[in-house]
């Protein structure tokens, strides 16, 4: 009897072979060359200017909520470029692929692109944008020195980066999912997708989802337990309210996503039958579970954007926000109802008239508090002394665009109409109408609004307006034709069309995408010009917009400890009231300030998670086992690290505050 030793290569490399490197795909080869040149240039510059030590000690290992918030937004902007490149390729393909012309994207490539586009834009653009703004602004608004769990904040960020890197790796090693961004079975089951694509999707989202869930817990604890004295719940800024409710939704919804992905992974790895159509499985159960997460996710994204609009409208109208209490109640109602509408994503499933009627009615009801918010913003602007700076322009564009998206949403809430429109481009237009017009416009308003608080100088208004107009006009060119095509019954997710009369509409949509590309380029120019002219755009007051909430009471950028003395809150618009009462900055009586120390553990855990995820994608069981054990070991070792804090001496606080008072 002879014993065969297991194939060591198989144990280490799993199913990964040289054939999984897509060197026969010219588009990917050119993309890889471009990415490699860019990466070498960036790494070369960092090395040349000897910034590695600075980046590691001041940014990568930082537990300062402000720096983590900025890093989240940088991640979102980088991933926006990748997600938009996918969108541009889809628009280009659909504009030319008619009749005998097949276009330039083969089917298997096109399917990967639209899956990656949706996945990246939601999980790695919109979510980091939201989390970054909340991270930066919310602790300052509530008068706190940091979040409740500073290390957890750093760990959450790096887990999100890890998930993003894993999804990006699929571009050059193996393939990505060809299932659509929510990976419905049976397409995502092993018989239909035996390659690495769905596994990249599962592990990328699982790793990032851990970061999001922990971040949600962290933010809730911060808002509930760390508000300044006097800041009752009904004195919290609206942005903080929306942050609280969005994070409550995260903590309630993301475990559902985690469980759903785990069950799909078991189907693929262990041969179970949760979502197959035989042996007791049911793939409609997957669709229910993914949308029980997915619809609250839409509100996780849009509620903080609503908070941004509230802050910006109030500040630039030079007025207290109209109907503060109704705004709070509307936000709470939206958060609760967001769990009662998920079935409207699949009225066509065949649940029957009674079920469809219930979810159709709840979907219409959720538009009522949203409409109340729109009226509150408009009444805030009414008879206000409106200043049309760049953040306020985004608010006005949002109100017009979001109302159109909202009305088409109410139309889709009617089950008979949805039966006609569900699988058409009308739905694509509606979804982008609310996500771009609601979430993305809000994030751009937020970046322009709080940028001077983060860096001490404003963003260049000229290039901000150039970006704004190209984005807004480009959006209408890109998506209004899709409404029309959808009404004509054109199916979504197609890469080729036979009817030549449709081509003009796709060409108009492609033209819109090019305009948006110019808008994104103008935004990059805006950042570059602002950095070059930062002395001219400098803000020494800490309050360039004449703000109303506490974050504007600190210097720009704020010191590591945020506030030398914890503020006392007596009003909703705390900073506005302090200015009315001629508040003077203290210059004496400072005490040492207790602060958390930086730690590299978050980076180590995220890198090990990335290795574990990559190993699981490629069935590298040995590497997966080693990295998982290492993950546990690093996490346990961190619990024995008691050297986690330090004190900023009183004289150093005094120096910083005296310099600030002098400015």
UniProtKB/TrEMBL annotation:
Ranges of residues in domain Cytochrome oxidase subunit I profile = 50-570
Q: Where in the cell is it found?
A: Cell membrane
Gene3D superfamilies for this protein: Cytochrome c oxidase-like, subunit I domain
Could you say which EC number(s) this protein's record lists? 7.1.1.3
Identify the InterPro entries for this entry: Cyt_c_oxase-like_su1_dom, Cyt_c_oxase-like_su1_sf, Cyt_C_Oxase_1, Cyt_c_Oxase_su1_BS, Cyt_c_ubiqinol_oxidase_su1
Q: What is its main location?
A: membrane
Q: What membrane topology is given?
A: Multi-pass membrane protein
Q: Which CDD domains match?
A: Ubiquinol_Oxidase_I
The cofactors named for this UniProt entry are: Fe(II)-heme o; heme b; Cu(2+)
| Protein origin, superkingdom | Bacteria
| Reactions catalysed, as given in the entry | 2 a ubiquinol + O2 + n H(+)(in) = 2 a ubiquinone + 2 H2O + n H(+)(out)
What keyword terms does UniProt attach to this protein? Cell membrane, Copper, Electron transport, Heme, Iron, Membrane, Metal-binding, Respiratory chain, Transmembrane, Transmembrane helix, Transport
For the protein in the UniProt heading, the enzyme class is translocase
Which spans are transmembrane here? 27-48, 68-85, 114-137, 157-181, 201-224, 244-266, 286-309, 321-343, 355-379, 391-414, 426-450, 462-484, 504-529, 603-636
Family per UniProt? Belongs to the heme-copper respiratory oxidase family.
Subunit organization = The cytochrome bo(3) ubiquinol oxidase complex is a heterooctamer of two A chains, two B chains, two C chains and two D chains.
According to UniProt, the name of this protein is Cytochrome bo(3) ubiquinol oxidase subunit 1
What is the species of this protein?
Answer: Dyella nitratireducens
